[in-house]
Amino acid sequence: MRKEERYKRVLEYFQKEQPAPETELLYTSPYQLVVAVILSAQCTDKRVNLITPSFFERFPDAYALAEAGAEEVFEIIKSCSYPNNKSRHLVGMARTLTGEFGGEVPADIELLQKLPGVGRKTANVLASVIHNMPAMAVDTHVHRVSARLGLTRNARTPLQTEMQLVKNIPVGLVSRAHHWLILHGRYICTARKPKCGECGIREFCRYYNEKQKSDLKA
Q1: Measured between alpha carbons, how far is 153 from 89 in angstroms, rounded to an integer?
Q2: Is the pLDDT of residue 215 over 90?
């Protein structure tokens, strides 16, 4: 199957089956999403959603968090992964957000990366979800699923995956495609045992078709 056809078929499937995909992180403001995304690094959304209610009760906005110490933040988030680093990042993020951006989360990818704890992937998530920009955040799910499906070729880094996806996905679908690929990787195209039998796009999947050919030869 040609690359253009594969992209077309995969995107058509997701548009039909999941027309309005959303992040599974719970938030009610841009500030809350920044906090949640920083906490979600190498941590499940489920765990983050257990932590954030008490966090936001104590620190309802960036100004309250900017006044906190890392030790106080640590006590609230210690059940997540890497709480020491994340505590420092969260306080630093709040101080930068209030000190340089007036408490408003910027839309620019480069400006977002000035916030402690916000790298390119996180910046793309924020730009996509908050500002509906055509930004493609590449985590392990997106990287894996894109390669298996055949949407990317020889993409060794998240940035290479991002560039190939953005080049081939229509601008108006990029922000939704980010969620489609993550959710597909989280629940169907899992790392160790992909659930190909439950997959609605296996017909277009390079990994599945190559596996079928290999099984026939065995």
Answers
A1: 34
A2: no
